[in-house]
Predict the structure of V-type proton ATPase subunit a.
Amino acid sequence: MGTIFRSEWMSLCQVFLQTDSAYACVAELGELGLAQFRDLNGDANNYQRKFVNEIRRCDEMERKLRFIEEEVVKDSLEVDDANMYIKAPQPKEMTELEANLEKVEEELISINANTKVLQKNFTQLMEMRAVIESVKVLLDSGSRMHAAQSISEAARGEAGPIQVGITPNFDQYDKENRESTELKFVTGVIQRSKGATFERFLWRMCRGKVFVRMMDISIPNVTGLAEVPTEKAVFILFFSGEALRSRVKRICQGFHAEIYNCPDNVVERASLLVQINTQVEDMQSVLNKTLEHRRRVVLASGMNVKLWSFKVLKIKSIFHTLNMFSIDVTQKCLIAECWMPTADMSMVMDALRRGTEMSGSTVMPVLNEMETHETPPTYFKLNKFTLGFQNIVDAYGIANYREVNPAPWTIISFPFLFACMFGDAGHGIVMFLTALLFLIFEKKIIAAKIKDEIFNTFFGGRYVIILMGAFSIYTGTLYNDFYSKSVNIFGSKWTNPINYTDLAVWEVRGATQDQDLDFTFSPNPAFDHDSGPYPWGVDPVWNLAKNKLNFLNPMKMKMSICIGISQMFFGVMLSLLNHVYNRSWLDVIFVFIPQMLFLCCIFVYLCIQVIIKWLFFYVDGKFIFGNWYPGSNCAPSLLIGLISMFMMKSRDDGFVKGNVPNYDDETQQFDQCYLQLWYPGQAMAEQILLAVAVLSIPVMLLVKPIYQLMQHKRGVPISGGHGHGEDDTGEFNFGDVMVYQAIHTIEFALGCVSHTASYLRLWALSLAHAQLSEVLWDMLFHMGLTFSTGYLGAVMIFIFFSIFAVLSVSILILMEGLSAFLHALRLHWVEFQSKFYGGTGIAFEPFSFIKLIRLAEGLDQ
């Protein structure tokens, strides 16, 4: 039975398959997804492998499928998903699939070619009809007479942009009218964007002896398959004599203009227009039927293209896997090597038997477990709940084989550390409900196959998010923080000790003197000692106090230190499990024990002092550990005390001289009584702890390398290490061992200090989140509540609440949530996992059809 605490036992197996049944057996293993094959033909290139021709055929089918899919998308149709189970096709079905794809491709190519020809003919007919209609308009508007006049002026040098010393001769106009009937003309169609350039070019090349008239037209693209320019213009070119005709036609060809012969006679033009209209109607009918047939073909293809794609994908992946197998000399047996979970070898064997039966072979496959010194891949049996947390760990590095997996502990610690920084019950409820919606509609979202990367990131971590929301509600109730406001459920344990009459007098006095009243309540009369503190979390009265940060900051800071050191302590304890599992008693005695002594003598000792200070030191005077404690002004300063411990600074015992209770005389207190020794034997205890912590460092640094050197000189194989100490030749290298051990010793010693300080981010981000939430409340929603009364006030409350809600979601939940997530990620990767986790393993990547299909659909990366 699989467990998530350590990776599964893996076995390297050798499989012997008959050539005829190899395809079906590999197909069954692909459906099972529990075998990672090794390439036994690494020295051969892709063209020297046995099934290279089958791979090429699959590549060709994939090309045809891409073409068919493009045609489906071109018609604005959706490609239907293949939600049903698709079994891997047999080799004999590959030929049938190839024939179907080739038939569809040829049919679509033929239809596209015919449609293109029909579109071209239809466009020419439409252009010809537009030319005839435009020529009639242009000739009726007197264009021929204007052309004759313009050409005559150009011949005399009177036309053009520059006329120097030339006077027009009006006696020639009658002659020009007579000659207008002798003008020749050429008609055609040109793209509208080229019209102005075309006209200027004709003017300059023909020296103004060609008269141009143009009229804009639009040609519909009825097929929508080809990019046919629809914005065009009809032109008519007037000129005199046949000499200019050839030049004009060459210019038209240069501008890719289509020339159409238009009769000069009105009757002939009318007859031709009737014929063209008839042809246009016939062509439109043929085009519609062709497009309708094409749409039927494309629609049928769109329903099956995904099915075909998955079949081709499975076929190609099977042959690609078969190319990793070696072939015996008889060419009748394929030999494969693969990693698989030891506990699932029976399932793999059953799949091989099914494949053999399906292929009709009588020779059963052989599965042998091999002995190897290679490092096996790491494989965890996961479900949809544990997958998200395992992905968080794997993002740092894959666990070493059979190494303690941080994921089970991350399931609890990650959302908890996130919640310590995000602690607001209101925001936690929003996050929890969002993740709950993901869970409720989980099946529908999976069936939708949404490919948006950001959405899939949130959906993939839905179980992480719901726990983060739940823990945020928990820490939010502890902080008594609900959208920056406190909730008074059990009733505050603080009361106002000041007489209301005095308060009224002071209030009047403060109003007359324009002063605010500030009171500091002493815990003795104001706090209810009999009933004890607030039952759950922070007392709500602190949300009203001006000095609430002075109370909350030390509490959260000390809480962060205690949580951080506890997690680091647990991480070092987990390293013991790795050492014991690897039977590395050298690491247990000379690495783990010194690390624990160093951590406990300094940092765990600090946490114990924090807890004792919380439990015993109060505002009232009393004897604590045999010393008279006069009041809160003498509460021990733990930070300075820790510094004094390292400096071995001499301090007095107790808080007052003679250790005699004196409630009124502060002169009997020691100077800086909060820096003195506060429990019996503290000086000796701290000296011993400091000495043990200092001595543990050279033990961690020197003992293990020296012991390994002695073992090497005796000829004993080196064991109990991390796999370091051997150079490229496999020889023991004391220098490498020493450097490696020095790096880890320095990293651990300095890391304990820096990592402890790093956990203060729990306090800092909690403070930042609470202050941002309070700013949004005071500057937006509170403003709407106090803005006005009546209908205007109701409208303003709605407006301000909308802005408040949008900013709360976008800034406090999304941005602050992402920030807290990244900081929690860092605390796990660096501060926690560095104590025991190697993260240099090899991921188990089995041959799985499910994985390949999800990759092809863009659902996985």
